[in-house]
Amino acid sequence: MRYRFTHEHLQRTLQATEPDDYKNFLRMDNDSFETLELIRPNIEKQDTNLRQAIPASQRLSITLRYLVTGMDLEDLKFMCVVAPRHLDLIIQETCEAIIRKLKENIRVPRTTEDWKKVAKEFERRWNFPNCIGTVDGKHVEIEKPSNSGSYYFNYKKIFSIVLMAIVNANYQFMMVDVGANGRMSDGGTLKNTNFWQLFSESENKLNIPEPCELLESDKKFPFVLVGDEAFQLTPNFMKPYNKAVLTDERRIFNYRLSRARRVVENAFGILSSRFKIFKKDIGLHPDKTRKVVLAACRLHNYLCEKNKNKYIKPGDIDIEEPNTTVTRGAWRQGHQLLNIERVRGNLANEAKRVRDDFCEYFNGNGSVPWQNNCLI
Questions:
Q1: What pLDDT does 342 receive?
Q2: Whole-angstrom distance, CA of residue 168 vs CA of residue 132
Q3: 201-203-208-213 Cα dihedral, nearest 10 degrees
Q4: Which residues pair with 238 in a beta bridge?
Q5: Which cofactor does it need (predicted)?
Q6: Residue 108 has what DSSP assignment?
Q7: Could you read off the pLDDT of 268-307 as tens digits, one per residue?
């Protein structure tokens, strides 16, 4: 036999006797794997007179094992008995197929009603009304590309590309942008995305809902994205008040915003804990690394939808206690994706007014019973 393990072997052994081991091996159960085989036509190869083609299920298993373990191709070859250069080709082709076939499971809402559904879920789960997404960026560590100089060299003195994402209230990616060089800041990377160019245009090509009154308020509030201090405050993008100017009211605003913002932190944490390719520097060219990262993000959403209770367990994510203290999720243990460098920027008066309006609302008619615990 040309390779040591096949998916059929996994089904006969692990799935039949140790289903948990099977799930850990590929980060999904057999039903999820079989559904994912919809990519088979894109990766299936024909046998020739000279050699037998590696089956599509095996190509998918190899790629999933690579993403799940982060094994070097030199180490993976001993498990598969496939030469590293062929493993590289298999992984790239399979990642491309995953990206194409699962392209609809990461998408920006297309209608006003779709955006309102996202906002309702943020309000229901995280008590931040009119929030249409939470934003953050992380460094994906890579080995220094040949002849790249300091192009990918970031502020932590490692080489990386940037993964920028917008996440909904259920830890699912709505937008990902991968590949910017590691020297860029969060705000700079976001502004260079196609999404931000559309988001910033006055024509409202993204169909963001018009500002509306909140419950028991006669003021109109815009629909906003939320992020941390790395981003620029705008009328449609909220970030925390600086610690140097905090009052009790502003602390409550920061607390309410942090409840929503933790969703994107946990989405990245789940991604990196399930796919350990993110736990070390990736020894591929940045263009190939981009495909690997995009495929992992699409698999994350696929598993969130297909089998969320098995993919995300309670102890994996941050849990907020009634006194507002946070029990940290298991993903925070060990190596984590590196944060993007923080930058300073000027704040426009209109943006500050919108943030102050939200602050006033959270301390008045929009308050929740337990929020003052954050002041203790």
A1: 61
A2: 7
A3: 100
A4: 226
A5: a divalent metal cation
A6: -
A7: 999 999 999 999 899 999 999 999 999 999 999 999 988 7
| pTM of the shown model | 0.87
Return the bridge partners of 173, or none: 167
Mean pLDDT within 200-210: 88
The CA-atom distances, in angstroms, between 253 and each of 123, 192, 216, 242, 354 are: 14, 29, 18, 11, 12
Helix, strand or coil, per DSSP, at residue 85 = helix
Write out the two tokens for 141: 């560590």
Residues with Cβ within 8 Å of 176's Cβ and at least 6 positions away in sequence, in order, are 106, 163, 164, 165, 293, 294, 297
Pairing relationship of beta strands 319-320 and 326-327 according to DSSP bridges: antiparallel
CA gap 20, 24 in Å, rounded: 6
> Nearest CA to 317 among 254, 264, 276?
264
Angle ∠(303,308,314) on CA atoms, nearest 5 = 130
Torsion sign across C-alpha atoms 114, 116, 117, 122: positive
Residues 121-149 pLDDT 10s? 999 999 999 999 999 999 999 999 998 88
The rounded distance, in Å, linking the Cα atoms of 261 and 243 is 17
181 contacts: CB under 8 Å, gap ≥ 6: 151, 152, 161, 162
pLDDT in tens, 61-92: 889 989 998 888 888 887 777 888 889 999 99
Measured distance CA(119)–CA(4) in Å, rounded:
49
| Amino acid in position 240 | P
Share of the chain above pLDDT 70, in %: 86
- The answer on pLDDT for 154 being more than 60 is yes
Question: Is the separation of the CB atoms in 10 and 17 below 8 Å?
Answer: no
DSSP category for residue 143: P
DSSP letter (8 states) at residue 72? -
Q: For residue 268, which of 222, 316, 212 has the smallest C-alpha distance? A: 316
